[in-house]
Amino acid sequence: MEKGRLSLLTPKNSVLLLVDYQPAMFKGVGSGDRNLIKRSAVAAAKAARILKVPTILSAINPAGNGEFISEITNEFPGKEVIVRKVPSFDGMEDERVLAEIKKLGRKKIVIGGLWTSMCFCYTALHGLKMGLEVYGLMDAGGDAFPEAHHYGVKRMIQAGVVPITWESLTSEWMHDWANPKSGELFKEVYTYDAILGL
Q: Are 116 and 143 in contact (CB under 8 A)?
């Protein structure tokens, strides 16, 4: 394992990229509980907002798939959702997404998206090819059927993507309970299940 991956994710060394969290994409998910998948993506977004982690949102064909879900966009008032001009499964094939990543200049990128074996996976593989340290938000992924999600995750891990969940991500970014944002994180992220009634 590369030395870089042994260093923990922090709000200063990483970026969050969320891809295609749109109504039609959720509607097609059959690999797991859609509410839990959404919960994971929203929890990661909330943690990123609280800890000021740079976040990029990318969508494909909103006319057909619907707008990026408000549970996430509401966390980042005024932030543009980058609608990919090229209708590619790879979120990083869009020049504006790529430009945002390059502008930030961070080596660690956390990616979550729908569907796992396609837009999520291809975007993550692109990040690896760019030389980024890619972390896959696996509990925020979903696909048309369980095998597609399973093998999408397996493919990413085999290629070098580091698997992570919203809870471990939040804890890694926070680092410890002495973090001045720990109370806010506990209220808005760690107990998010209670808010949703899950």
A: yes
Domains of the chain, by residue range, sit at 10-196
Residue entry with tokens 């930030």: 104
In tens, the pLDDT along 34-52 reads: 999 999 999 999 999 999 9
- Judged against a pLDDT cut of 70, whether residue 195 lies above it is answered with no
Q: Which CATH class is domain 10-196?
A: alpha beta
Q: Give the residues across from 109 on adjacent strands.
A: 15, 134
Using CA atoms, how far apart are residues 195 and 198, in angstroms rounded to an integer? 8
Question: Looking at residue 194, what is its pLDDT?
Answer: 53
Chain mean position to CA 110: 6
